[in-house]
Amino acid sequence: MNERTRDLVDAAPGIIAVATLAIVALTAILGFGSLVPIVAVVGWLLLTPLSAILGEVLVPDETDAQPARQSDPEPARDAATDPVDRLRRRYAAGDIDEEEFERRLDLLLDTEGVDAATARERVRQRDRDADAEREADFEFER
């Protein structure tokens, strides 16, 4: 089932509830006062919950049908702990400039999938190289 169908099934109870409100108002305005409670009960207390229940039973969510994997080789990162997302948020907020963002992003991507000790050594080497480059640029400017 495609996403549009799933969205329509999810929206059906709300659509029916709003349509029931319109039909109740219309029957009251047109003078069918005795039908107002019947339309309200059928719409809100029967059709709305029934559409929600049938939507879940007849059109199951695809994620419910898939069994969970026991061992995921690369666990999904949530946005709160993903270092790249945190870095992007800091850049968007203006906490760091573009140069610092690029430097840190390259560092994160270089060390992704590497154990902590190797990552720390790469960071130290990269910092030493950057310091040497800055020092050479400073000497050249003199």
Automatic annotation (TrEMBL):
Compositional bias of kind Basic and acidic residues: 71-85
Ranges in a coiled coil: none
InterPro entries in alphabetical order: SHOCT
Every SHOCT domain range: 82-109
Pfam families assigned to the protein according to its UniProt record, in alphabetical order: SHOCT
Ranges where the record places region Disordered: 63-85, 119-142
Keywords assigned: Membrane, Transmembrane, Transmembrane helix
Ranges annotated as spanning the membrane: 12-32, 38-59
Name listed for the protein in its UniProt record: SHOCT domain-containing protein
Source organism of the structure: Halobaculum litoreum
